[in-house]
Hints:
Elements: H1 8-40, H2 45-67, H3 72-90, H4 94-98, H5 100-115, H6 122-131, H7 137-167, H8 170-204
Amino acid sequence: MPDKESGPDGRRRTGRGVRRLARLALDLGISPLAYYGLFLAGVPTWRALLAATVVAGGWLLVTVALDRRVDGLAAFMLGMYAVMFGLAVATADERLLLVRDPLTSGLAGAVFLATCATATPATAYLARRVHRATVDADGMRRHRVQTAVLGTGLVAEAAARMVLVFTLPVRVAAGVSPVVEFAVLPVLVGWMLAYRRRTALGGAR
């Protein structure tokens, strides 16, 4: 028998999946790409952040035109870069500039936690965006747990990095802060994968 995944329906599903992933990558990556590209090219930080904010705003308008609604993820990226641009313009203090990255994590964690009080927690929203998944009541409960844990972890990681920024020498904080981030994120992702496996096995019994 022919492989269903290699037929027209399988190819269409694959194509839709690729388009959804590409759209998610643009939502998350277009403004950071603008910022880091300009920063590495030698553009001053505040100018690079301004450009990233403009790019994020432009992409938000594109998503509104495509979807006929405001995309939450694109709006979040716009708000995040607007805040970072405001910080860069308001001060040249090195410690406050170091706050930008943990502030980003903290904002993301706060958004995750806030969505726990809504009908669609953040991980369920992302599952729908990427996989067009239909989430039942039990699945929504699991997504709420995942979103709460990830949000709490991001807020705690951001708070710890803030403490480091304001208590350690600037050069030390600049080196240690990313280490904390890269130590925490794999733990959160590992927990999420283990939780999904455990709940999937429990539901199969």
